[in-house]
Amino acid sequence: MNNETKIMDLYNDGFCDSDIANKLGLSYKTISHWRKKNNLPTVWSNRKRLSSWEKERINKFIDSAKRGFSDKTKEKYRKGLSQFVMSLNKPLASINHIDVENYIRQFNDVDETRINELLRTCYVRNFKIPFIPVSALYRFANQIIAVHVFARDKAKCQVCGKMGSISLHHIKGKYDLRKENMVTLCPRCHITIRHASLNWLYNEKELNIIKGYKA
Fold it and tell me: Cα 111–116–122 angle (5° rounding)?
């Protein structure tokens, strides 16, 4: 069986470009070029499986849970997060707040005139989705979206410019997953936003920036 046939078989089985490349020991560029040459869409528009990276992210999220999960609970979380990812017509790495909010809409009647209140505050915890609490989905999605925010902010604190140890700050609360509600901060500036006792460490320009990042 030649590589062309192997690639087509894996593609038809729902494997994405990067997974096909890894399985066959070829470059991602080679697989992407083959798919485009054959006028084939990405597999995301007709999902059949999770990619290796997506499975890895789900498992990492479950393993990093603060409280110890039983095997039964881990399996429920795995099912719930997998179902969410399978609902996407894009790779998990590309998700945004709209994908999360639309998923909740699939299982709940949401008053569209109150989106900011119902889907972007703690009230969202009142909705139900399969297998897992909504708050868990938000934490999971937050980790993925944070990568884009760090890239946008060039991985440096938006107050003092420090790089290295950075964290994600939600300006108007952790349930608002819009990127404009998120900003990259160093640990010290993150603490300062919540506790004014450190204001003396900053100049006027920095204090004005900090003020803008407070809810």
Answer: 95
- Could you report the per-residue pLDDT of 154-212, keeping only the tens digit for each? 999 998 898 988 999 998 889 999 999 999 999 888 888 776 655 656 677 777 777 77
Cα four-point dihedral sign 104, 105, 108, 110: positive
| Three-class SS of 91-153 | CHHHCCHHHHHHHHHHHCCCCHHHHHHHHCCHHHHHCECCCCEHHHHHHHHHHHHHHHHHHHC
Cα separation of 137 and 116, whole Å?
17
CA gyration radius, the chain = 21
**Phi, psi at 30, each rounded to 5°:** -65, -45
Q: What angle do CA 73, 131, 15 make, to 5 degrees?
A: 95
pTM of the model: 0.88
The end-to-end CA distance of the chain, in Å, is 60
What count of residues does the chain have? 215
CB 150 within 8 A of CB 166: yes
Which residues have a Cβ under 8 Å from the Cβ of 178 and sit 6 or more positions away?
Answer: 96, 97, 120
